[in-house]
Amino acid sequence: MTKYIKNAAGGVQAVTEEHYSQYLTVKDEAGNEQPKPGYSLLTEKVARKENPQLFGETDPNIIYTARELVAKRKYAEDLAAYKAADAQVNAEPAADGEPVSDGDKA
């Protein structure tokens, strides 16, 4: 069975019952298992709220994945390069020496 713990650093983790009893508990004078100092047991509901990724959910604070951020940055760089090239082409005067007109004036 899985137990949910909060460690001393505030992280929420899932551990097996065997791991919990072997490494994360101490026995009191009466022989009862108690969590080691700095560790506390959590219910599944509390653990789900504090660490949704533990249950395969997405964290609402993470908006983009790393792959999406790379794609977004590449798109922005490509768009900036396109705009710079477009501005340079449109800023050059006509090749035949005639002034650039505002359109057809009759």
Task: Give an overview in words.
The chain is α+β, with helices and mostly antiparallel strands and 106 residues long. Helix content is 38%, strand content 18%. It contains 3 helices and 5 strands; from the N terminus they run ββαβββαα. It has helices at residues 17-23, 44-50, 66-91, and strands at residues 2-6, 12-16, 25-27, 33-35, 40-42. Strands 2-1-5 form a 3-stranded antiparallel beta sheet. Strands 3-4 form a two-stranded antiparallel ribbon. A hairpin with a 5-residue loop joins strand 3 and strand 4.
Query: Which strand order spans the largest sheet, edge to edge or round the barrel?
Result: 2-1-5
Please report the total strand number as a whole number.
5
Rg, alpha carbons: 31 Å
Low-confidence stretches: none
Largest sheet data: 3 strands, antiparallel
Shape: rod-shaped
Broad structural category? alpha+beta
Helix count, DSSP H or I runs of 4 or more residues: 3
**CA distance, first residue to last residue:** 86 Å
Helix content: 25-40%
H/E element string?
EEHEEEHH
Assess the beta-strand content as a share of residues. Answer: 15-25%
- The average pLDDT score comes to 84
Say what oligomer this is. single chain
